[in-house]
Amino acid sequence: MSERADCALRAAEAGGAVAVGSFREGIAVETKADKTDVVTQADRDAQDAVVATIRDDYPEDAIVGEENDELRAVPDSGAAWVIDPIDGTNNFVRGIRMWATSVAATIDGEAVAGASVCPALEDTYLLDEGEAYRNGEQISVSDRTDPEAFTVVPTVWWPHERREEYAAICRGIVERFGDMRRFGSAQLALALCAAGAVEGVVTNVEANPWDSVVGAGLVEAAGGTVTDIHGEPWRHDSRGLVASNGEAHDLVLAAAREAEAEADAGR
Fold first, then answer.
1. Residues 196, 140 contacting (CB under 8 angstroms)
2. For the chain, is the Cβ count within 10 Å smaller at the N or the C terminus?
């Protein structure tokens, strides 16, 4: 294991261990921007554990994170760490097991290693040297080619005033593919795409880097395709995120663009 992958894994495990200690324990919940944007003390405590682990090995690197006073954007030069102590906090506070502690290592804005630890599911996803793993076993995207057999996931929540876009993307999915899921954790959805459990993950929303960098890296390392809403290679600051097993990416992209058409109509 590379040094940065090892640090990412240890940091994600440390944060996950803190978070799972409060899972289903009736922890107090606060709201942020709206009624579904929630945070708990477990988020803050888990982030502290993640940061402390990283700082032991890389005291000078930039840290980008959702909670506390970390940076909000990935620097385009130098080394940085992108962290989410609990991706899927709404699931966490409802006692639903689908959440992850994610840590990515980036160099000059590109992910070089990362880990998403899902303590309540007992799954650990690792990105290291261009390979993707789950629980130590290498994973790859689904080999399904028939869209009618695909399961596609809408992800990254739309603000209340943009729910027409969410409805449009759901319509785009159900009209083109066999099934649809929504997991409530973008990092977990992308990890499941990398592992072949689903064939696509889509949003036209600009994804926060802490919600997406590890997962997008896992999909690409597992043999999939990740683009922005325009079909260009995805970056941490792209508009939209469209990930697939690569077998019918244009069709997955078309579903995502249903939401973008709705957004354009509302502008």
1. yes
2. C
Tell me the domains of the chain and their CATH numbers: 3-138 (3.30.540.10), 147-266 (3.40.190.80)
Token pair of 67 as six digits:
């909670």
Chain Cα centroid distance, residue 168: 21
**Alpha-carbon gap, residue 49 to 66, rounded angstroms:** 14
Q: Both ends of the chain: CA-CA distance in Å? A: 48
Helix (H, G, I), strand (E, B) or coil at 151: strand
Q: Does residue 123 contact residue 135 with C-beta atoms inside 8 Å?
A: yes
**C-alpha to C-alpha distances, 15 to 4, 7, 46, 217, 223, nearest whole angstrom:** 16, 12, 4, 20, 28
Taking every pair of C-alpha atoms in the chain, what is the biggest distance, in angstroms?
50
For residues 81 and 104, what is the distance between their CA atoms, to the nearest angstrom?
5
pLDDT digits (tens, 9 = 90+) for 88-139: 999 999 999 999 999 999 999 999 999 999 999 999 999 999 999 999 999 9
